[in-house]
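Weekly puzzle thread! Below is a chain. First person to post its structure in token form gets bragging rights.
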Amino acid sequence: MTKWILPLFFISPIIFGIDVRTGIRDVNHEGCCEQIGNFTLVFMEDAFPDVSYENPSYIRFRILHANGWARTTVDLRPDSSPDWADPINLAIRTSDSNCLASDLPSDAVQLVRLIKNEKEGWIRINVPTNLWLYKDGAHTSPTFDNKASLSLGISGQSSVHPNSSTPTNGNEYQDSYSLASTIFCANYENTPQFNVGDIDILDFISFDSTTTGVETGDTVLLGANTGVSFSNDTQIARGACHIACYRMTTQLESISAPPHPVTLSKLSAVDLRYNCEKIPSVYISNCSDFEWHPGSRFFICLSSAFLDNDRFYETYAGSTKGMFFKENSLQVLSAEGETWSITPGYVDDKIVGYCITLLEGTFPAQNFLELSGMALYLDSNIMNADMVLLTYADILNPAGTDGILRRYGPIINYTAELNYEDIHLYRRTLPYTAYDRENWHFYLRTVNLSDQTSRIVSRFSNKHGLLLRIRGETSLPPMGSEDFSIKDTYGEQADEILAWVEQYSDQPFESTGVILDQENGLFDLVRSNEHSWQTLVAPHITESSLWETTAYILASGNESPRFFFNVPGQMNQHISAILFPGATAVYKDSDFFSNESRISWFQVDAEISSASGLLVYHKIQDGGQLASLPLNNSSSTNWEFDHLGSKANGWWNGCVINNPNPISTKVTLSMLDQDRQILSRDELEIQALTRKAFLLESIFPDLENINATYLTLESDESVLSFLLMGMEKREQLALIPGNLKSDTQLVLPYFNSSDTYWTGIAVVNTTNQDDSFYLEAHLKDGTVKKSSAIELPGNGKSVFLLDQYIKDITACTHLTIKASSPIRGFGLIGNQTQSQLASLPLAPFP
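Winning reply:
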């Protein structure tokens, strides 16, 4: 038997310090901006044991055939654009995620240079590789069995892997900690050595810390080679022609820009279930080396849907579940003027995508479309989400697709990050809408007080605090206004249920509730509240059977504290009607009795500042009169009222002084003339926890003859006070507020410009210097009708009718008053038949 002796060959595998693994991509061999492939560096040894932030090492990668990079990704040179002056932290991941050192800094490895027209890219190693991993209680370096790797040439989203070394778990910008794209684009124009079928490659080499100029220089001076070995799997691009290719991006100048940040807020609301957010434009580019012919089309859809043939179907795997597009909002903008059609695609009667078809003209190579006007409806319970779009393309070209409509894709694009944030919004509440009165009609006037277009959302709740209607975002022009009627918008049933209004805006604003009963001659104006209070004082409950008093107590905060009804000298009573934020407790005449006697005032105490309220005084006999008092706790030892009704002209003036303190107080009342000279003075004592309500004529019998125009109060203890001005045997009644706020710019947020109404203004100079002021009457669109200068002496007062200074106020809705010194004042609005009257303070601009 013959024996064969076979030689034994022992082949040792070649072990590289860093294994390079590339993804190759077909590119147009003559293209000027071609996206090439990607690469991953797999570390299998302690390749950089001695580096530090002060003495880093560098890995240089260089492309062979291309003229250079087509776009800049990172440029740290002093004169570079801020858009590129941020290193990219490269996410390090391991084959065993538990081995990555928890204290490994996110900037351990960074992309620090990749500049247009250069052929090299530079990676900086800041932290020794023997500190990257942690195993058996000690730091260690990567090994063949426990590798560490990082990837470039990919989008920020594609770089994300669980338990990586950066906060985002992906490649990220050093300063913003947002995901960063490292996609490579190369320029192959005029490259005779790179043709169809040719392969372009990268070469890799590493240098030590003696290398200079990487971050700061126009050229790089190479240091010593560190001797790290790289594998030779370096193919990155393959030359081709007639490549059908397209791209979708969120920024035109960026291959893979980060998603648009979109902030969700209360202004997003469109109804009780859905919010709506406008999404910035996205761009679809023809990256082919040929034009597309009519019949070519795109399909774009949310990731909650997928395309099968030419129809969209729902999928339960998408992150955009609960989202759909607003109907008829998408627009296609083309640079070359070709004609495109837009056909929405539906799932369950909701738009989840669009088909965009080229009808006329051609879509040139290297051109783009802008898709603008997208608006996204999303479930109001969604607080944070990603909007992910999928794009398919059906491309037609005689050469590029052999004259056949061929489908490509999908391309996935993370288009927007939707995050709920309590951004600063201006909020106002109106605690009463006349919902419980059969013949009282209510509407709301809202005024934008800024020079910017404002966005406003209104929310309507019933008296139990249930949010029943949301009036979605409306826009008001700078200094513009709008009127809104619950009944006209939501119907009679809603008009009898919706009890109060909450409004939000991104700009300062004022809103005024208008209560009107034409049949009975009732009219009142209610200014909305900017703040909530912990204590509300209702300083006066009427005693006469001719009057009825109703109190509306609103839990206007966002929390659920307890509220207590407090009658002086008695135990607090828990208000059981207020169980939830937004609930209203209503107290009517029949409720204002304690121990069989009628109470004269009360207060409401909440556990935190979360209360608003309104007292409504209604004279139910002798023609009917109406006035309301906003509830608060604004007590003072000094009160000043800037207007008194003339007794000679038939007006009466009622005064209320409330002492909420546990001790009595003396109050000095002074009547002043136009020049603020004292005409008459008297003194009252208000007992502890009581109030006095009286006609000024009872304290100053000669009021008819002294021509007083001011009333001041001075007291030892802080008191609350207000005036009521009315006419006997007429229906006119108005509350005159005291201690008005002063500023150099004031607004009267409501007046009626109809010729059946008049508007009177009182303006007071709060300084001793002579001044002048100007009136500006605004139309709904913000257009201004101005007056000439009106003189105002120091400490003086000007009382006038608006049409004395602005002759034509037709269609005007609100008024601004401007002066160089602080002024204050209020408006009186009444009808020509002398049956209606209401007051409204001039409010300072925010």
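Puzzle host: Confirmed. Bonus trivia for everyone else. The chain has a mean pLDDT of 91.
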